[in-house]
Amino acid sequence: MEHYSQRDPRWKNEKMGTSNYTIGSQGCFISSLGMLAYKTPHEVNDIMTKKGGYANGCLVKSIKASQILGLRFDYTQANPLGKTKTKPNFICIAETHDYDRPSTSYKEQHFFVFAPKGTVSEVADLILDPLNTHTVWEQNKYRIVSYRMFHENVPIPDTEMEHALEWNASYKPKPMVGTVTGQTKTDREIILMLYRFNKGL
Same structural domain for residues 72 and 170? Predict the structure, then answer.
């Protein structure tokens, strides 16, 4: 997984969406999404801005964000934010209010990547905190108020995709999906799924 800091000088002063807030000051959520999606905070901000991933300037629209970033997101119509207080068994995004100030009329939220025990470490829950200048896995230091059920978008090894495409092209008289010369991104995902099923993976 890529590790990104919202305070990285390459994008910390970049404005989020159509707001005046910067990634450095308010970009913890999109930086965490970026780590799961293997995209920089700058890339996430650019995609979210151009493809309608923000509401009211820079508020993350979770369902839309998952769609345009290619992330699996567990949500329901009754729970569109994909929030739960039950610790999941996979790497996701967590929320804390530890930076909340009594003087504000709203809750100060902070988001970070959360890895439960048994995923990255066998002995402890770990986090990647985008507030850190150098973001590395560390033991959780926050009181978590919710988990947001985004899943890591693990890249497909190039060799496996090549084998899957060769397997698809070997079908006669024509490939199972797409054409011999090319497939769409959706075609390639279907091919990989069928290939893994055929191989019992």
Answer: no
Q: Using an 8 Å Cβ cutoff, are 128 and 135 in contact?
A: yes
Query: Does 14 fall in a domain?
Result: no
Q: Do 116 and 178 share a domain, yes or no?
A: no
Confidence of residue 1 (pLDDT cuts 50, 70, 90): confident
Q: Is 44 exposed, middle or buried (0-12, 13-18, 19+ CB in 10 A)?
A: buried
- Structural domain contains residue 27: yes
DSSP structure class, residue 127: E
**Contact by Cβ (8 Å): 88, 151:** no
CA distance 168 to 192: 9
pLDDT given at position 179: 53
Is pTM beyond 0.70? Reply is: yes
CB distance 133 to 139 below 8 Å: no
Give me the residue label for tokens 């890339």.
43
Q: pLDDT tens digits, residue range 58-67? A: 999 999 999 9
Domain hosting 140: range is 23-148
Helix (H) or strand (E) holding 148: strand 144-148
* Residue 153 within a domain: no
